[in-house]
Amino acid sequence: MAQGLQQAMDAPDVSQDELEEMMKLLESYEASSQSFGPVPEELQELMNNVKRAKGQPTNDVQTQDITPEPGFVVKTTDQEGRKVFINVCHSKQVRTRHVLAVS
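Above: the chain's sequence. Below: its structure in token form.
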């Protein structure tokens, strides 16, 4: 990947407004790709990273919306003594993880 693109993707000081503008620019480029040809791989990767950062689906990974069933809540505290609530839920659409015992 080009060094400049990698730096842009890793930049921690990108504001939300800059991210929105970048996304608009990338989406307009993607929409006009029929006239310009295919989107370059590096640009597509950047666009996917921006979409992931915004919580939007990307075309590179198959996704499925799942509405989980309620489970239970674990109440605990963090290292600074603040309350932390962990909501545990489940769905038949998510495969069960099998844990192997280590002898």
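The two ends are 43 Å apart (CA to CA).
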